[in-house]
Amino acid sequence: MTFKNWQVEILNRYAFGYSNGFLEGINNTSKVIKRHAFGFRKYEHFKAKVLLSRVYKEVGIHLG
24, 28, 30, 62: which is deepest, by most CB within 10 A? Predict the structure, then answer.
C-alpha cells in the first residue's frame, strides 16, 4: 500500500537522481544542537552554531 501511494515520488527519485539526504542531515544536526544548546538568547548565535557545526563536521573537528 505504501509503495502504491508513493509510487510516482519513488520512481522520480530514480529517474532524476536527486535526494534530500543532505538536507535531512542538516535538519538532524540542527535539532541535536537545539536540544544541547537550550538557552541561546539570540537566534543569530544559534544560527551561527548550526552553520559552523556543519562546516566543522566536514573537516572533522568536534564543536562542543
Answer: 30
Q: Per the structure, how many domains does the chain have?
A: 1
**What per-residue confidence (pLDDT) applies to 64?**
53
Contact 57, 29 (CB under 8 A): yes
- Beta-carbon contacts of 57 under 8 Å, excluding residues fewer than 6 positions away, are 29
In a domain, 12, yes or no: no
- Is 14 contained in some domain? no
Residue pLDDT, tens place only, 21-30? 888 888 888 7
Q: Give the span between the Cα atoms of 21 and 4, in whole angstroms.
A: 22
